[in-house]
Write a structure and sequence with these properties.
By secondary structure, this protein is an all-alpha fold. It contains 10 helices and no strands. The chain starts with a helix and ends in a 14-residue tail after the last helix.
Length: 277
């Protein structure tokens, strides 16, 4: 189920890349966020859950970083291969795990840094620097997403937190890019957007919850560390993106760093692995 969740995420992202030719990356991000908000609100019914002022503020901040993460990632993935973008974004949760880990886990940060260098190949200058900056922006937002999700989770469940954060993310995206996208919408694009919202985050979120009930946290975290590798496979089979040898090496280093940090985590501790859409 954990692997299926990651495949859904990457298939949704691959489909988003194809749709960006019609709506642009910012339009696809907006469409996914709006539909995800509609679906999550219908499932979570947040008006039935009492929120303290502090939790409500945390969920609002969570919605803001969710919008940033989604929009940054889409801006990056139209400039970089899917596997490269996913690996760079994965450095966000990896950084959180390293900071919170034991002393020896800090060495895995060097492995991840070597992976980033191999992914971007600064000595060649062929990698789009704007795309790299967008991917690292998505990584920073994912790191903040993890911290805020855990803070909100102290008082409400993840689904109820999403019931507030996803509408906020949709509003932020609408303010940022919505007016420029409205004229390009049609019923076909709206239906496609609904399907993308199911692929990311509704189905993966549900699969992750079921997987977490059946797997020890370290095993779950190790599986989720494989997501950049799955992104390479989806990019190759769906988008025809053939990775360079240095990119493959970089992704392997990031994955190994993720597995290494996870192996040294506390047994009952795990970070949220699948980002919001």
């Amino acid at each position: 189920m954990a692997v299926a969740a990651m495949c859904c995420v990457q298939l949704g992202l691959a489909a988003s890349v194809g749709l960006s030719a019609q709506l642009g990356p910012e339009g696809v991000a907006w469409l996914r966020l709006v539909w995800a908000a509609v679906i999550i609100v219908a499932l979570a019914r947040p008006w039935r859950t009492p929120f303290s002022p502090a939790t409500l503020r945390t969920c609002i901040l969570l919605g803001i970083v969710t919008a940033g993460m989604t929009m940054f990632f889409m801006a990056a993935v139209v400039r970089l291969p899917l596997g490269t973008t996913s690996a760079l974004e994965f450095t966000g949760p990896l950084a959180v795990a390293v900071v919170r880990g034991r002393g020896t886990s800090r060495w895995w940060a060097l492995v991840a840094a070597a992976g980033v260098v191999a992914l971007t190949e600064p000595w060649r200058g062929h990698t789009d620097p704007v795309g790299v900056l967008f991917a690292l922006g998505a990584a920073a937002c994912w790191a903040a997403y993890i911290v805020l999700t855990q803070r909100a989770g102290d008082e409400v469940t993840g689904l109820h937190a999403l019931g507030i954060s996803m509408p906020v993310a949709a509003v932020v995206a609408t303010i940022a890019v919505g007016p420029a996208v409205f004229a390009q919408l049609n019923w076909q694009l709206l239906v496609i957007g609904f399907g993308l919202a199911l692929l990311l985050p509704v189905i993966p979120f549900s699969l992750e919850l079921m997987a977490l009930r059946r797997l020890p946290a370290p095993a779950f975290g190790t599986l989720m560390s494989l997501e950049p590798a799955i992104a390479v496979g989806i990019g190759l089979t769906v988008l025809g993106q053939i990775p360079r040898p240095s990119a493959v090496l970089g992704i392997v280093l990031v994955v190994v760093a993720g597995i290494g940090v996870t192996a040294q985590r506390k047994p009952n501790s795990i970070e949220p692995a699948v980002p919001a859409p």
